[in-house]
Amino acid sequence: MNKILIIACISMVALSAQAQRNQRNNGGNRQQTTREVKSETEVYTQRAEQYVEQWDLSPETGAKFIQLYIEWQQKRMNIIDKYGMDQKAGADINFKKITAEEAEQLVNEDFERLEQQAEIDRQYYAKFKEIVTPAHAAQAVVQQRNRAAGMMSMFRNMGGGMGMGGGMMMMF
Prior knowledge:
Elements: H1 2-25, H2 34-55, H3 59-85, H4 100-129, H5 134-157
């Protein structure tokens, strides 16, 4: 299971790097191609299918869970895009020269993003419990939050201390 998660994380890192290259090459235009969106959805589908198989869900329940899981991941990514990648995310901030007001704004935006993610996670945990056991719902949510926190930590350590987001910040 851990190997599968590591492979999925590495795949998302590669997709993130490619998306950022595409963004730079398009003059900062954030419009995604159909293939990029499909790839992201494919990754979410694959992760959800792993849960369905692990939990031995019926085809009907599995299909409901996969659809809900993809929806949840897309909502989480919308928050990250809005508050992480499009805004500074700390990667290009010189913390030695930042003003008190800029520091407050940066931290407050980060807290707001985390609060919005937590709220979405709460909502989807409740929705997951309607179709799978509370233990399964908890596993999906807790593992996602831990995976996201681990990826943030990894990216912070990549870029030689480039700030909060390192060179490429993306959570899954």
